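Action item from last week, closing it out:
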Amino acid sequence: MINLTEDLRLENRSRLPDDLRFLVEKYPREEWRQHANLGEMAQFWLQRHDMFRELSTLLQSGVGEYREGRLEPAAFARWFGPRLRFFLQQLHGHHQIEDMHYFPLFAKAERRLERGFNILDSDHHVIHEALERNSHKARAFLLALQQDADRQRFAADAYADENAGLIAMLDRHLSDEEDLIIPLILDRGEDTLGVTG
C-alpha cells in the first residue's frame, strides 16, 4: 500500500486528480453504454458495481425502516443478516480479484494510470478496514435487537453512522475505479487488454 497525500485519501477526495482523467475526458460516461468496445467483461464489471450500489442503498433503507419503527426487531434481523453477509462477502471477493489480477494488468497496459491503480489499491485497504468495522457494528446491532429498546436504539444509531461512512467511501471508490477502467477498455478493447471472458 502506498502513502497518499491527504487530498488523495478516499475519505477526502471528490474525484481522481486531473492527470489521471485523460481517458475519461476522451470517453465521457454518457458515451460508455453505446461504445463498440464496451464488451462483456466491462458490462459485467459495471453490473457488479451497480449491484453494490443497490445493495448498499437497500441496507441503508432497511436500517432506516427499522429505526422509524416500521420493522419489528426479529423480522428486521431475519431480513438484514443475510443481505449484509452477502454484500460484505461479495465486495471482499470483488476487491481481491481486482487487486490480484485486474489492477496489475491495467497498470501495465497504461503506465500513465499506474498511480491511479495504486490509489485504488490503497482504497481497498481503507474499505477493508471499514468493512471490518461495519461487520463488528452489525454484530453488536443484531445482538442488541434481543435487548431493551434503549440498547436497540443506541446500536442502530451506531451501525447507521458506520454504514453511512462505508457507503460514502464505496460510492467514491466505485466511481473513480470506473473512471479509470472503463475508458481504458474503450480505448484499447478487451481483446487487446486480455480481459475477454
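Closing note: Residues 101 and 117 are 12 Å apart (CA to CA).
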